[in-house]
Each structure stands twice: as structure tokens, then as C-alpha cells.
TrEMBL record, chains A, B:
This is LacI family transcriptional regulator. The keyword Ion transport does not apply. Keywords: DNA-binding, Transcription, Transcription regulation. PANTHER family: HTH-TYPE TRANSCRIPTIONAL REGULATOR GALS, LACI-RELATED TRANSCRIPTIONAL REPRESSOR. PROSITE patterns: HTH_LACI_1 (PS00356), HTH_LACI_2 (PS50932). Signal peptide: none annotated. It comes from the Bacteria. Residues 5-59 form the HTH lacI-type domain.
Length: 337, 337
DNA sequence: CTGTTAGCGCCTTCAC
DNA sequence: GTGAAGGCGCTAACAG
């Protein structure tokens, strides 16, 4: 293919009409074997490829799915993408990837871009579901699946997530059962509902239930990066009153925390227990092996993608709420007092 | 916006022609303040958004860049994406993400999709540059930047990479200087040129130069995952003749290898040294801290994106070869004999 | 300055 | 079965 050829050109060369070409290209209507052959051979020769943009314009579909996540360099999210891509691919969709870095404005911005671009669907790992989000999803008509937290919208879009409150509650319960009484938490960033508010809530419930002390200086809210975990640990451990266990709301933060602790002479888990969340790839490679709340991001991504496809195909969805399993995995970074 | 409105509708409601609407929307030509205001207010009211697909059809640009990498869950590649997205975003481009899992057929498949979709550019982290690739890039006219290895094409596309042969050579040299004489290598997958062939070559050159033994049973070729590193280590260590050092061509593999070694009673680095490659986030969090060849993927991604933008803008590019710096970082996973 | 018109490349009635 | 014609939503000459 030298210069962009169009359906018209190949119609001419095959001595047929453009509609015939279109028909054989789409297998949309019966075309005599003769013409079909003629068209196909010209297509072959010229290496002709139909213009997907033009096609999209008339068909009103782009075969593109917008995927919006907070951060791609977090193993949890990249696994999510793996799951998403795997199923979308089999349905002929591609991924338009955007990252918000947990910034609400960026989320809104990308959401609008998704709409402008006429994307066929959206998979969205929300940070905080604000009124502006609600507005957007009230007005838009783009099939959507939310990932990572429960989201209530007028339009009734499904979401797939674990029960974050419960999971955090159970993780904290476990620590309590291990006789820990002074437990700190490193939660997600300030505005992050799922890994921030929800998990913090579960933690608080467990502490209250057990009648344990709640120090706000033992509660941090930071991004899910190793660096932020390191910093959060430094804050917590700079208090005069020190915890015997830290519940990190992501393995990334747990790793950063352990790094800090070790550099400052604490042994994990002998001096202080650290619980993670996610069970990323290296949770079992790291030493001590991370005790953590295992999620299955590949599955979650795949599930979300399937729910999206269903919506696009107009299938009635079975349920809005898709709670997926998680599991507390006890390994070496925590111990009983 | 209830039902999809078009430029036509808002032209009607504002009592102007479609071209006027188009003009104010694009700021393309001077429009009287009066009309402009009228149009803008209607746009405001209706929440009108121009259809990017239609726009793309006439402008022959999609503002979409195809990014093709082997694997997103590898920290090195996700960092690459971070760098790419950061600069593309400022130019109004979005990313169409695809992963090849190092499969040549998938690469070709996605490349074709990129072309079909009329993407404005391609950033491609090649596995192996085959004749089919060469064909594709000979016929296509899509601006491209190669990432991670030197690639020669007719069309003269730029590439950004470190000098893999040299880097591997130096890494191996270092091990040799540390008095290691029996050095194994865990290279990239069979068909991977950069992390496979090139790094293996650098390793071999260093060994030959030093007159050290070359055992093919000390050379593995596997994917850059923790699991594959684990497995590769098991293969190497099952030989009767055992190495005193392993040069892993990715930190992922190094991590997997160390995991294997420890599970099987070897201490790192006391019994066996392990050298990594990449310097991913957790190289310094892991214990022992990884001795590794540091790359800067965020920068590399950003550089690639800039080179692509230059191409798209028709700027003459300064150089095809963009060798970026790397650095051997000695930490704790290797030691002198 | 503004409106009319002709496409961009493709699909889809609608007649033949 | 096949072709001609209209239109998807937008932009860019071309007149006025």
C-alpha cells in the first residue's frame, strides 16, 4: 500500500460498486462468488485496509474502552490491566489507558475525554466518587464498570470490588487476636474511598469493638507507593507512644514501612508486626514474607471487562454488586505477642 | 446532553451556519464577538461536545498513540508508560496500550491494528525485529519510535535504548573483578534481542576476554518474571558444576532466583552472588539490596514520546540513535570471593 | 466576516 | 444480487 487507498479505489479496480466492496468486506449481504472473488483479489493485491475511523463514524462505535486507574506502576493495577486486556482483546476491543494519580480533576478530565472520543465503554477505578462524578455519570450514556469500590449512580452501573470494610476489619481482628493492642494503620490517600476511608473504617470498627485505643497519630493517609509507605512509617514511629503492629493498606506501603523500620533498628516481625494488603507478586519473595490480604486483580479486571461487554451487548446484567473474594494470608511479617 | 446533538443542531439553535460553529469551536478564524457569544452560549446550554471521530476522519489524525510493550506488570515497563503518558498528555495525545507477552505474532497483530486505527504514532518495545517487522515498517508510514533496542529500518525511525551489550559486558566484568570465575547468566526469552541476545553477548565477551569457562548449561533464556527467575535458578543450580555468581538480566528474574536460592539453603551473597538489571522500585527495599544495572525507564519513556512528537510535528530529528545512560549500582546481593 | 458546498471513507436503505 | 445515492459529524475551500 503506497498511498492511502479507499474503498472507492478498490471498487474501481475490481469493476464493482463501492457497496459491493463494503458488503464483501463486512460479509453483510450475499454477494455472488464471482464478484466476491474479484474484490478479494484486489484487496489482496493492494493490501487494502478499511479505515476504522470512517467506519466508526457511521457505526457509532470505536471498539475502544477507556481504562482509568490511579497508577500503573503499582503491581495491583497493572495486574488489573492484564485481566482487562485479556478479555477485551477476544472481543476486538482495545484499551485507551489513562492514569489519574488519585487526582480528582484528572479523573474528570479523562472521563470527559473518554466521552469526547466516543469510547464504547469505561472501566474506572475511582478515587473518590464526588458530586461531579455523579453528574458525569448521570448525564453520560457510556457503558461503565467501576472497579475497586462500591459506587451508586442513577444509571445503575455495576461495580466489582472486595468488601473493603470487612476485609480491613478482619485484618485488624487478626492482629488483635495475635494480642496486639497498639495497632497503627497506613491507609490510602486522603480522598481515596476504598483503600482510604473504607479500610480505615474497618480498622476502627475492630479496634472499638475490642476496646482498644484509637490514636489519630497512628493513622496515616498516603499514596500507595514504597516511598510513601516509608514516610508514613517514619511519622508513626516518631510518636512517643509506639505501636506493636502496623496495618498497611497496600503491600507497597508495607514494603516501604518495613524498609524504614529495619533501617531504624526495628526487627519485623519480632519488634513490630506489619500487615499488608493486595498480595502483589513479590509479597512471597520479600523477606519476611508478607502477611497480607490477598486480592486477585487479574480476575477482578477480567470480571469487570466481562460486565462491560455484557452492557455493550445490551445483555441485562445480573447484579450491580459484584463482590469478589479476598483472603487473609498469614506469612512471616506478623507475629503474636 | 440528552440525545447526541451535532454541530448542525447547535448551528440551528444559534442561528448561524455550521461553519461558524466549527470556527468558534476551533478558534480557526476570526468570528465576530456577537456570533461567537451566541454560539458559545448554546454550546454551554446543551453541553455540546464535538465528535472526535468525525473530526478525526477529516483531519486525518486520531490523537492516539499506540504503545506496544511485552508486559505491563513488569515494573520497568509500567514506569516506561508513566514517562510516555506524562509527555503525550501535554500534547493532547492518548495512549492505546497493548501487550505482546513477547509473542511475535501478537506484535504483528497489534501493529496492524495500530495502522487500521489510523493511530498518529507508535512507541514500540520490540522483542525480536524479524523480517515481518521490517516489512511492516517498510510499508507503513506511521511515525514510530523504538524502545529498548537498536532497530534499523528503511524508513529511519529513531530508537532509544541503553547499550545493552556494553552494559552486560560491564556487569559481567564487575563480577569477574570480584574474583568470580564461574558465572551463570539468566537472559531474556529466546527471541528477545535486547535483554536476550544482546546481554548474553556482552556477558560472553567478558567471559571470553577473561578466559573463563562458558557453559551453555549456565545460560538460561526466560521471561522477565519472578516465577521464571525462580525456575531458571533451579535449572542452573541443578547442574553438578555450580556457579558462584548469577547475572540476571532483569531484577524480576534476580528476585525469583534469590528466592529459589534461599529456599534451597544458599545464602546470597555469601554462597552465591546475584546481579540484577533495571533497578526497579523494590531493588533497594529487598534484602539483600540488589546490585543491579540501573536504567531510568521514566526518562526513557519520556524521551521516546518526545521523539515521536517531533516526528509527528515534522521536525527533523537530530539523531536516530538515542543511547541513554545506565549505571552499575553495587549494593548487597553480590560480593567478592 | 459569514454562509454554502463539497468532501473525509464507509455503510445502508432504496430501487433496479 | 448489485449499484446509486444519502448521510454519519465535522472541516475547509469557495464565494459573497
Amino acid at each position: 500500500m503506497q498511498i492511502k487507498s479507499s474503498i472507492k479505489d478498490i471498487a474501481k479496480r475490481a469493476n464493482v460498486s463501492v457497496s459491493t466492496v463494503s458488503r464483501v468486506l463486512n460479509n453483510s449481504k450475499y454477494v455472488s462468488e464471482d464478484l466476491k472473488r474479484r474484490v478479494l483479489s484486489v484487496v489482496e493485491e493492494t493490501g487494502f485496509k478499511p479505515n476504522m475511523v470512517a467506519r466508526g463514524l457511521v457505526n457509532k462505535k470505536t471498539s475502544l474502552i477507556g481504562v482509568l486507574i490511579p497508577r500503573i506502576s503499582n503491581n495491583f493495577f497493572s495486574k488489573l490491566i492484564e485481566g482487562i486486556e485479556e478479555v477485551l482483546q477476544t472481543y476486538g476491543y482495545n484499551i485507551l489507558l489513562s492514569t489519574s494519580y488519585n487526582e480528582i480533576e484528572k479523573e474528570l478530565e479523562y472521563l470527559n475525554i473518554f466521552e469526547d472520543r466516543q469510547l464504547d465503554g469505561i472501566i474506572f477505578s475511582v478515587t473518590e466518587f464526588t458530586d461531579q462524578h455523579k453528574n458525569f455519570f448521570g448525564e453520560t450514556v457510556v457503558p461503565t464498570v467501576f472497579l475497586g469500590q462500591k459506587v451508586e449512580t442513577l444509571k445503575k452501573y455495576p461495580y466489582v470490588t472486595i468488601d473493603n470494610i470487612k476485609a480491613a476489619y478482619e485484618a485488624t481482628r487478626y492482629l488483635i487476636k495475635q494480642k496486639h493492642k497498639r495497632i497503627a494503620i497506613m491507609a490510602g490517600p486522603e480522598k481515596d474511598c476504598a483503600t482510604g476511608d473504607n479500610r480505615l473504617q474497618g480498622y476502627l470498627e475492630a479496634l472499638k469493638e475490642a476496646g482498644l485505643p484509637l490514636y489519630t497519630s497512628w493513622q496515616t493517609r498516603r499514596y500507595h507507593t514504597i516511598d510513601d509507605g516509608y514516610y508514613a512509617a517514619s511519622q508513626i514511629m516518631s510518636q512517643s507512644e509506639k505501636p506493636t503492629a502496623i496495618f498497611a493498606c497496600s503491600d507497597q506501603q508495607a514494603l516501604g514501612a518495613i524498609n524504614y523500620l529495619r533501617e531504624h533498628g526495628y526487627r519485623v516481625p519480632e519488634d513490630i508486626s506489619v500487615m499488608g494488603f493486595d498480595d502483589v507478586d513479590l509479597a512471597t519473595v520479600f523477606r519476611p514474607k508478607l502477611t497480607t490480604v490477598k486480592q486477585n486483580p487479574v480476575d477482578m479486571g477480567a470480571t469487570a471487562a466481562r460486565l462491560l461487554i455484557d452492557q455493550i451487548h445490551g445483555n441485562s446484567l445480573t447484579a450491580l454488586e459484584n463482590l469478589v473474594p479476598y483472603r487473609l494470608v498469614v506469612r512471616e511479617s506478623t507475629k503474636s505477642l
